[in-house]
Amino acid sequence: KMEEFLNLTQLKTSLKEAILLDYYTAGFWWAKEMNFSLIQLSGFMDLLNFALENVSDKHMTLGDNLKELERAMSGIGKTGSEERGDPNLFSIEQAKAIIDYLVISLFKHYKAYEYLFHGRREEPMISNE
Fold this sequence. Notes:
The protein is an all-alpha fold. Helix content is about 65%, strand content about 0%. The chain has seven helices and no strands.
């Protein structure tokens, strides 16, 4: 189902699509194991997508991506937002766990993800040789 949701059409022949499927599927199951509510699960998947888009589309450096993640998560755990009934809040403990997860799953492998999205790939050559 994740393959369909992400619209991955070349999964069997594209290493990039296989990596993306693994990234999102692993994140989804991690969030399920954390017992996130449906709204929290959606917010977490948005954070995964946000951080990955910062690499793929915006060509952000690791430092810039970390700053953007900090900005995106800055409202987490504030009581004023909770009083307004903001359903997308995570507790401080959940926010720390999310950051730890992103460090392990994305930021420790940042150069690899940069290469995945921006590295020069040579075209395969087909010849009689």
